[in-house]
Every structure is written in C-alpha cells, then in structure tokens.
Amino acid sequence: xxxxxxxxxxxxxxxxxxxxxxxxxxxxxxxxxxxxxxxxxxxxxxxxxxxxxxxxxxxxxxxxxxxxxxxxxxxxxxxxxxxxxxxxxxxxxxxxxxxxxxxxxxxxxxxxxxxxxxxxxxxxxxxxxxxxxxxxxxxxxxxxxxxxxxxxxxxxxxxxxxxxxxxxxxxxxxxxxxxxxxxxx
Length: 185
Known about the structure:
Layout: H1 3-9, H2 18-32, H3 39-46, H4 50-62, E1 66-68, E2 74-76, H5 78-101, H6 106-116, H7 122-135, H8 140-150, H9 170-175
Antiparallel strand pairs: 1-2
Helix pairs in contact: 2-3, 2-5, 3-4, 5-6, 5-7
C-alpha cells in the first residue's frame, strides 16, 4: 500500500470529524455569549434537529469533550475546550494564509478554512503561523517575495508543464470556469 493510500484511509482517524468540530464550536460560541447552552440552543445555532444534537452530544460526552449538568446545560470539558481552541486557531491561521497571503477572496477563504481546520496537524498549523509571521516581519526578502507573488500571473508560458500540471492544471481550471471540458496534455 502506498503512503498516499495509507493517508486517505486514515482520514477517519482524525481527532474529530467536521461535524463534531462544529458542535464543539457551537457550544463554545454559545457559552461565550452568555451562560451555558442547552441542546436546543445548539440545534438552533447549527440549524439541525434536536434529535441530531442529542445523538452528537452523546458522542461528545462519551469522548469527554463536553459535560452535561443536571439542568441539561452544556459545558466544554477541559479536553473539549483545548480542542476548540486548537481548531479555532487553525481556522484563523488558514483563513489568514488563504486570504492575506494567497489573495483568495475572503468568503472563499473562510469556507475553505472551515472545511480543513480540523484536518491540519499541529505541526502544519505552527509552520503556517511561522510563515505568515515571516511574511509580515518587514524583512526585505519577505517583502520582496510577497510583492513578486502578488504580481505573478496565473498563466504558464506556452509549451511548458510543471510537475503539478502533468495531469490537470489547476491554474487552467480556475481560469476556465465556464468550460466544463478539461484537456489533458
């Protein structure tokens, strides 16, 4: 089995799923805006049924990510709060990288960061923070790099292909959004 196959097969072994991350973030958000939320508050915030929330809360309790009081109020456990902080931090770093560094539209950057926030390792998240700090450091080389990147074009010289474009060119895809067919070189 190739390394690629091992990685995608291990996808389900992430600390939390996308759905779990959103439930935890909802509990945290509701708690920050005053008090301890109930399941109905989470359902309302996420736009899901109370039954769906009940099932997810059971899983969150089993994994010691939330505590449910006698009054049915929800509170993140220490482990849950730590996880929420790491996920929220990675979301912000990814959004910053996509929007401020790469120039991706803010709404697209927010959506993409949301999609991958719980999948990025701590190591990659920390590396992105270091990279963003370097780019914003005022260092002459970093400033030059940022300026050159901002002025780069999304087109390749004719008759050239790079390792990334051997099968399908992402730059071509993003500029040919109207064309449903993609030619392979």
